[in-house]
Amino acid sequence: MRLGIDLDGVVANFNDGWMSRYNADFGTELEEHQVDHWDSAADLTHFPHMREFWRWARGGKQRPSIFRDLTPYPGALEALERLAVDHHLVILTVKPEWAIADTFNWLVDHHLPTREVHILRDKWLVPCDIYLDDSPDMLPRLAQHRPEAVVCRFIRPWNHPVDGCREVANWHEFATVVREFGEGTRAAAG
Prior knowledge:
Layout: E1 2-5, E2 12-13, H1 14-26, H2 41-44, H3 50-57, E3 71-72, H4 76-86, E4 88-93, H5 100-109, E5 116-119, E6 130-133, H6 138-145, E7 150-154, E8 165-168, H7 171-189
Parallel strand pairs: 1-4, 1-6, 4-5, 6-7, 7-8
Antiparallel strand pairs: 2-3
């Protein structure tokens, strides 16, 4: 099966990454548990709007963007390795143009077992059997545009239940959804 996997907030710990860099740059002590909604950065930092946050996040000649040095969530890479044995992993991520090179470098550094990467805003344009995402903006659109697929919401403090989406709290639960869907597909074809 084709598994459409989001990166930030699912595989890569975006909040820990930007907070670590922000704390180092500005002498603050932000912690990941403080993020309770999408685009929390504007509320937690001195940036008055998200556009200023993204301007800082871009990096520059002195340092790469925040996307370059994110740490993987515990167990994410191992789960992807196991899933890639029997399934085709498709990375689906939304990034600004300036983050593309750092994103590909991150994928290489962490040896993600995929041959297919899409950096795009409309993830439903890439057909997959199962999608895994955390974005409160993307999940309803995936469910709407891909009703034939299983759309899984990776439960995070910044998202909420979405009609048409299965909820998964960890990688083990996602692997269970993949296995069950695969068994159901084989049984229906059988």
